[in-house]
Amino acid sequence: MFLPLTLLGISILVFLMIGLLSPYQRLATFINSPERLKGADIDKLVELYGLNDPLVVQYGRWLKNLFHGNLGWSYVGKKPVYDALVERFPYTLELALFSIFPIIFLGINLGVISAVNHNRPLDHGLRIFAVVGWSFPDFVFGLFILMIFYSVLGWFPPGNLSLWAEEVVKSSAFRNFTGMTTIDALLNGRLDIFWDAFLHLLGPVLTLTYVQFAFILRITRSSMLEVLQKDYVRTARAKGLDERVVINKHARKNALIPVATVSGQTIIGLLAGAVIVETIFNRTGIGSFMSLAAQQLDYASIMGGTLFFGFILVLGNLIVDISYAFIDPRVRLE
Amino acid sequence: MKKYGVFLLVMLVLVGGTSFAEVKNPDTYIHLGIGEPDTLDPHHAYDTASGEVLGMVYDNLIAYKGESVTEFVPRLSLEVPSAENGLIKDDGKTYVFPIREGVKFHNGSDLTPEDVEYSFERGILADPYAGPMWMIIEALFDYQTIEDMIEDKLQIAWSDIVDEDGNLKSEEYASQLIDFYNQYIDPAIEVEGQNVVFHLVRPFAPFLSILAQNASWSAIMDKETCVSLGLWDGEPDGWWKYHALKKEESPLYEQAIGTGPFVLVEWDRAQQKLTLNRNDDYWGEKPKIAKAIIWGIDEWSTRRAMLEAGDADQIYTPLQYLEQVIDMPGVKMERGARLTITALHFNWTVEKGSQYVGSGQLDGEGIPPDFFSDVHIRRAFSYAFDYDTFIEQVLLGYGFQVPSVIPKGLLGFNEDLPMYSFDLEKAKEEFQEAWDGEVWEKGFKLTLLYNTGNEARQTACEMLKENIESLNPKFKIEVQGVQWPTYLDAYRQGQLPAFIIGWLADYPDPHNFVFTYFHSKGVYGITQGQAFIDFAQENLDSLVEKAIAETDEAERQKLYEEIQTIAYENALGMALYQAEDVYIMRDWVKGWEFNPMRSGEVNWEGVYKEE
């Protein structure tokens, strides 16, 4: 019930913002560079696309189409907006799935190690490692990875797949289940394709992991340090419990609540697409699509994409809320 | 970004040099550019990316010979019409094309003269609002759009004939529109046996080049296929329903079925990647490569890395990155000057409400709307730009100055014509004379706009500012970068005091440039303000029209030189440069050839790979 209302509100806000632009500015969607002024009858184009109509009329037209399941035409995607989103989302989801585990795993474990070794050299070393990653702009680190692992070593090429693998995947013999190549390859029993797709994923995964795990590490560490000061930890130690049990069972579990919140945000962020990483590694995700749509004022794509992100955001937060119940039994699902 | 690139390059050399690769994918040619086609409908397509693909899939009647832009070879026509072989008749008003027999489209249907007739008629009637069909319409009928022609012939505006949904406002218009088709359009292109005959209302010198290969607007399509897909059905009744549709509504938006040397396999719009296979049943000489991949990879570093690894054979290289690849092992460079001009033009009557003219008065804090209608101001600006330094430093020497808007390589070009050179003394004199000395005394203030991301134009504006401000402390020029939508808006509203804008030849004839910049109805002519339009109507229009209807080349040369002399004397615009392009490819690329009129960077039919 709450979801459709939120989405409606978002759509009105975005439309109003686009509506502040003049019809000629919005014509940039169709005439997207000085070269395209050739042969263009600008006033007739404005009329043809109804850019001169009152904003309410334009919004009404969009809403009416939406109720018929039509999100409009994407000039950036050169397809109906819905198709363009559906075509790209599996790539974003795949990258998110492959990145999120190393990000969270490294973040939590190194965070705990760091906290346990509070102010010892290992702690300092880990913190420096993390801060460097955190402060590295992703376009620098991404280029670095591309140069080392592609240009020099030839291991992780950019793109989605190699030419031969793409041919197989697009042939009729290969069945598409999820749109995520790695998973589809396994379902089709093609380990060679899985391996190829996996190699293409590693560059972006490595980049995303390094620039993002630091955040989780820092939250885990500070949360862990706080918990380690708690009375019950002292009690646990006092009664002679094994240190590993104290840390892994008693302390860590309690320290994870804020980490869950932050991880949820990270996941949502990843699902919204990683513009820079997608661009550098030439992956066809949703992030680069939306950034292009915004630059070209392709309002149908912007509206469609915003609704989609709104949906993911609401859904993502719901999942985070549910996950609290698993970490902390005091939170009940009621 | 660039700084980091250099830093990383240094790191790379330290890490251990580059990897060498043998010829990868020997039968496949991979070109990395930016972006992707706008549409695959030949009559909507008007960008180089679309033109490139359509030129591979479709054949035209004739093609350019090698690197020439004036000599032709036959393609789907058995002969190139000329006065000598009797296929150009009536003093250049009738062109006859004998159509090749036994040619098949990619879907197996046969090429007939009716297909040729249909292809042109469909384009003329469709005439989309951002399309290239004005060229055919101008050549055949001497109008710019089909709507202009209807308005003139029937004396009714198109908007009065058809409502928003494309239906006729009144039934009586139907018979008028059918008559219009029968009376003008149908007779202009006729089938006579195996020949197709074009009738022009007056001689039009560049007609053959408008038809030549790579001009998608003259591509030959299959009537049967088009009709079955839902394009115009070829009937006079109801043709208006197929006029000026949105580009995404065309059934040919994502399909291309021609007779050409390549067959379109896939247009992957998520990856901006087109895959084409060699047409093994091609009637002519078959391409050497089996597969062509045209891939838009917008990020330079990625393109560069793929070239280095040998996963790409050729990449689009903007000048500012040239130094990163020029010494790369296994990579070579080719050069070529395309027919393109970049010029700064003035707005003689800035529209009201402009934020770029300061106070809007000659009080030292702005300029009056008609500031640039004074020839001395325009001359002063023309003297205040350092053409040579710009070409040397910004274009890295890949370009040259031209007298006016006719590029080198075209009829009418003459490097001995007078042109402005950088001379601050003369600029000062002109400023002192302008507006009866008022400008020099009071000073002025204006804003030059450029669209962000275009570094060359930004630098040009800044150089001009620097030089002009050095003449008089009361002269103030602001240089402001704005996003393209904002620029488009200001440009369209006539609010820019001056603008830098380029033109790439649609067809290799001076008319294409002269009409565009100097005719009162030209694309850029109409944006130089009412005072300019008045000037053009009085001094230029008749000359431009005379030059295009003239069939004698020497006479045309004279007329175009006259137009350029008028442009010089009145300082109509500053032709900043004609740029040369650089083409970066692997050493193993063989058979690469340049033609100034090619869309894209590759001659797909001739190119191949060999160590």
Give structural notes:
The complex is a heterodimer of chains A (334) and B (611). Chain A has 334 residues and is mostly helical. In chain A, 73% of the residues lie in helices and 1% in strands. Chain A contains 15 helices and two strands. Chain A has helices spanning 2-19, 23-26, 42-48, 55-67, 81-116, 121-135, 138-152, 163-170, 181-187, 191-228, 231-238, 243-271, 275-280, 286-295, 299-327, and strands at 73-74, 79-80. In chain A, strands 1-2 form a two-stranded antiparallel sheet. Chain A is globular. With 611 residues, chain B is an alpha+beta fold. Chain B contains 21 helices and 20 strands. In chain B, the strands form five sheets. In chain B, strands 1, 8, 9, 10, 11, 12, 13, 14, 17 and 18 form a ten-stranded mixed beta sheet that branches. In chain B, strands 4-5-7-6 form a four-stranded antiparallel beta sheet. In chain B, helix 18 (510-518) packs antiparallel against helix 20 (541-549). Chain B is globular. At the A-B interface, helix 2, helix 3, helix 5 and helix 7 of A face helix 1, helix 10, helix 17 and strand 17 of B.
Summarize the structure.
The complex is a heterodimer of chains A (334) and B (611). With 334 residues, chain A is an all-alpha fold.
β content of chain A, as a range?
under 5%
Distance between the first and last residues' Cα of chain B: 34 Å
Low-confidence spans of chain A: none
Radius of gyration of chain B: 26 Å
Question: Which features characterize this protein?
Answer:
heterodimer; A: mainly alpha; 15 helices; 1% strand; B: 611 residues; alpha+beta; ten-stranded mixed sheet; four-stranded antiparallel sheet
How is this fold's topology laid out?
The complex is a heterodimer of chains A (334) and B (611).
Chain A: H1 2-19, H2 23-26, H3 42-48, H4 55-67, E1 73-74, E2 79-80, H5 81-116, H6 121-135, H7 138-152, H8 163-170, H9 181-187, H10 191-228, H11 231-238, H12 243-271, H13 275-280, H14 286-295, H15 299-327
Antiparallel strand pairs in A: 1-2
Chain B: H1 2-16, E1 28-33, H2 48-57, E2 62-64, E3 72-74, E4 88-89, E5 94-98, H3 113-126, H4 134-141, H5 146-154, H6 158-161, H7 172-188, E6 189-192, E7 195-199, H8 207-211, H9 223-229, E8 262-268, E9 273-278, E10 291-296, H10 300-308, E11 314-315, H11 322-325, E12 331-337, E13 340-346, H12 375-383, H13 387-393, E14 399-400, H14 424-433, H15 438-442, E15 444-451, H16 455-469, E16 475-482, H17 484-492, E17 498-504, H18 510-518, H19 530-539, H20 541-549, H21 553-569, E18 573-586, E19 589-590, E20 608-609
Parallel strand pairs in B: 1-10, 1-11, 15-16
Antiparallel strand pairs in B: 2-3, 4-5, 5-7, 6-7, 8-9, 9-10, 11-18, 12-18, 13-17, 13-18, 14-18, 19-20
